Amino acid sequence: MVLLNEEQIKRAINLLIKNDVIILPTDTIYGLSARAITDNQNKINNMKKSELNKPLIILVANVEQAKRFIDLTKEANDLLNSKEPTTVISKLKDSQTTYAIRLVKRDDIKEIITKVGPIYSTSVNISDEPHLKNKKDLEEFIDMDHCFFTENLENSPSNIVDLILNKKKR
C-alpha cells in the first residue's frame, strides 16, 4: 500500500478545512471525501447525481470519534476494529438518526481525520455506475489538485453491517 506523503497530507488537511470535496485513497477504494457536515454531504451527493440528503459513510480515526455518532457496543467495537474494513450502521440511544461509521486503518488517512475530524467518504462515481479506479478517470471527475492518487486500488468496497436490523448488507 502506497501512503500519502507529508506534503499531500498537509494539502488534504488544508482543503478539507476549507470544506472542499477531495478524492482520497481509503482502505478499500478511492472516496469522495469532505468534513462530515450537512453542506458537504449535499456537495458530494450533487457531484454523484444522488439525492442531496442521501446518507454517506463517515470515516473516523478512533473509537472516541465513533462514539459521537453511535453507541459503541461490544459488537460495534469488534466490527469497527475487525481486520476487514467494515462499516457499521447504528445510532445513539434515544436518537432516530442512523449513521454508517468506519474506523480507518490507513495511517495517512487517520492522521488527516485526527486533524480535521470525521469525514464523509463515498465511492467516486456517478450514482449506480461503477466506482472509478485509475488516475485518469479520478482526475477527470474532480480538479487534479483535489485528487490524491497513490496507486490503482482494485479492492471491493467495505463490508457493511447494519446493527439496527442485525444483518450484513454487503
From TrEMBL:
Keywords: ATP-binding, Cytoplasm, Nucleotide-binding, Nucleotidyltransferase, Transferase, tRNA processing. It holds the Pfam family Sua5_yciO_yrdC. Residues 6-170 form the YrdC-like domain. It is found in: Cytoplasm. One of its GO terms (cellular component) is cytoplasm. InterPro entries: DHBP_synth_RibB-like_a/b_dom (IPR017945), Sua5-like_dom (IPR006070), TC-AMP_synthase_SUA5 (IPR050156). Its EC number is 2.7.7.87. One of its GO terms (molecular function) is ATP binding. PANTHER family: SUA5, THREONYLCARBAMOYL-AMP SYNTHASE. Belongs to the SUA5 family. This is L-threonylcarbamoyladenylate synthase. The gene is sua5.
